[in-house]
Amino acid sequence: MQPGFWLAISTLGAVLGTALLEDGVCRAPDGKDGFPGIPGRDGRPGQKGDMGEPGKPAPRTGIQGPKGDAGEPGLPGIPGNRGFPGLPGFPGMPGMPGLKGEKGGPGNTLEQPRPAFSALRKSPPFMGRTVVFDTIITNEEDSYSPQTGEFTCRIPGLYYFAYQVVSSGDLCLSITKNREQVVSFCDNNSAGNLQVNSGSSVLRLAPGDRVSVSTDPARGSSIYSGSEADSIFSGFMLFPQTG
Predict the structure, then answer these.
(1) Alpha helix (H) residue ranges in the chain
(2) What is the SS3 assignment for 55?
(3) Which of 31, 77, 205, 241 maximizes the CB count within 10 A of its CB?
């Protein structure tokens, strides 16, 4: 017979046997468990699972190692922005004196201007407290004005000024610089005799400074105006300013 015929007969017998067992007509006792089979081969690897949650950091249990050697210097960075200026520092110590310079050539004093004047008081105009010496004796560089009684500085330096004024009574006179009193000289003359009030001073002047002689009416201003004696005002430069 054909193998397919026997396969069909076997399948039918198994189906009928199962039906009889389900109807409770006949049932054989259960057999014993068989022996465990041989483990099968490993299955194929499964698909890659999803990424898990980050794990908690483990406690540090190791001992910190020694400090490593210094690395190579890095490349220079880009220069930063300019900072604010700092506070001025304290002055430094004076430096050592420099070497002595070479001796200069001889100067020509004849070419240097030398302001000098001398003036008498004859018929002066009234200029308030300023004593005007209206008659010129000497006036180098034309620095003295017989109209105002003032010497005007044009060359800075040290100057010497002196006056001698004849009085017939109490007289107080001052040498003034820019209308400010520098030195004052007073003589008391209650007898009314002729006497000389004199004074002098050395002044440092800058261009534009003005020097004159002035009176103090509250303390005496009796200047004699006769022809018996002269009153004089003089001045000249001692040294020009250098440097």
Answers:
(1) 3-22
(2) coil
(3) 205
28 phi and psi angles, rounded to 5 deg: -80, 155
Q: What is the tens place of the pLDDT at every residue in 146-194? A: 999 999 999 999 999 999 999 988 899 999 999 999 999 998 887 778 8
With b for 16 or more beta-carbon neighbours within 10 A and e for fewer, the 69-78 pattern comes to eeeeeeeeee
Whole-number Å distance between alpha carbons of 235 and 144: 9
Show Cβ contacts of residue 54 under 8 Å, excluding neighbours closer than 6 positions: none
Inter-residue contact 142 to 113 (CB < 8 Å):
no
Q: Is residue 238 within 8 Å of residue 200, measured between CB atoms?
A: no
Does the global pTM surpass 0.70? no
β-sheet bridge partners, residue 166: 196
Task: Tell me how far apart the alpha carbons of residues 200 and 161 are, in angstroms, rounded to a whole number.
Answer: 5
Structure tokens at 123: 């018929």
Which tokens belong to 85?
């200026």
CB contact at 8 A, 135 and 117: no
